[in-house]
Amino acid sequence: MTLFFSQESCLITQDFKKMKICVFASSSNALEKIYVDEAIELARLIGDTNQTLVNGGANVGLMHSMLEKAQEHGAHTIGIIPEKLKGHNLVSEHARELYVTKDMMERKALMRDLSDAFVALPGGFGTLEEILEVITLKQLDYHDKAIVFMNTNGFYDDLFRQFERSFDENFAKPAYRDLYYNANNSSEAIEYLKNYTPPTPVNKWYKVPTNGQK
Fold it and tell me: Domains in the chain, please, with CATH?
């Protein structure tokens, strides 16, 4: 069961929100300044363009920094946190709407359902799991929402090289390069989201040879 809390008394009208942008962000408080600065810049742009920020709702790391800055710049903010983490007093006060889920799986599902687009900041295992799952679901035609990697400081360069090997060796079709976008900075990310057009769906399955025939 998902519990919903409003952390402010004023009402937010539908006109306030043009797009709900889910940002998968690190919980680490030990990051280099370049990563914090770019996350804050993205949050500022989300606020200045009257978008809604959706993230993990925690009061640590880039999640907290983004919620604080986005709210400061007028964005509506939504935090989605598992009950276990809420129990450790990890809830950010800058999430205007707070959803408490029973576990991580429900948290990710609610993030996907509520959001219109996804952005992955540089991050660890959790961030990678979250963004790769939405790519996989898009590949399988469960959604056609925009997906962006924020490649701050070339953080995802090695991951993109691994993707290219998957394409080269037929583990994934080259057309799936269009499932996601590599943004070097926040302005590029926002511009891509503003102009996003879903790619034409591609049949995932390679033809399987039968009786030696191709």
Answer: 3-7+14-193 (3.40.50.450)
